[in-house]
Amino acid sequence: xxxxxxxxxxxxxxxxxxxxxxxxxxxxxxxxxxxxxxxxxxxxxxxxxxxxxxxxxxxxxxxxxxxxxxxxxxxxxxxxxxxxxxxxxx
Length: 90
Description:
The chain is mainly beta. It has strands at residues 6-8, 11-14, 19-22, 29-35, 38-44, 51-59, 64-71, 86-89. It is 0% helix and 51% strand. The strands form two sheets. Strands 1-4-5-6-7-8 form a six-stranded antiparallel beta sheet, with no helix packed on it. A hairpin with a 4-residue loop joins strand 2 and strand 3. The mean pLDDT is 90.
């Protein structure tokens, strides 16, 4: 693994538990800070093994995080990613 400012894991549950995309045993998110409260990097889907490019922006005044997939990856057997493309998290 390279040098990153932030690394982490993810877990997303969709379709009332019909699809889960969770990384428990290794880091799946790698981010570098590009400016104050803005990070870009990648996320590896545990479901499809696709790597997507992401941007995370933190808004300190509202304590919200904007999650953006800036480039979707294509997984094995063309399985989709189960990440929201653009969402504000509270």
